[in-house]
Design a protein that fits this description.
redox-active center, globular, single chain, Glutaredoxin, iron, metal-binding, about 110 residues, alpha+beta, 4 strands, Thioredoxin-like_sf
């Protein structure tokens, strides 16, 4: 499977996925740390890909979605944005609303 197909499969299979530097338990940049913090406050599960250990994804993803930086949050297959947008959405309540729709209670 090529890199683009792998990325599209990850996005399709995970209602909420964060492409980040590091892991949720150990983010490796402040922007990824902020994004994980905002997502964690909502309390819904999310998948992640550590782009530092996936150089092909780190190189290809920005070109696919015209978003040059990490982290990148996708919800239901749609690019939401990076940490600045995630934090703005957390502040106005729209992140919680979006994630609750994407990941309903079991």
């Amino acid at each position: 499977m090529d890199t683009e197909a792998r990325i599209r499969k990850q996005i399709a299979e995970n209602p909420v996925i964060l492409y980040m530097k590091g892991t949720p338990a150990a983010p490796e940049c402040g922007f990824s740390r902020a994004a994980v913090g905002a997502l964690s406050k909502v309390g819904k599960p999310f998948a992640y890909v550590n782009v530092l250990t996936a150089p092909h994804i780190r190189e290809k993803l920005p070109k696919l979605f015209q978003w040059p930086t990490f982290p990148q949050l996708f919800v239901n297959g749609e690019l939401i944005g990076g940490s600045d947008i995630i934090l703005e959405m957390e502040a106005d309540g729209s992140l919680k609303e979006l994630l609750e729709k994407a990941v309903p209670q079991a």
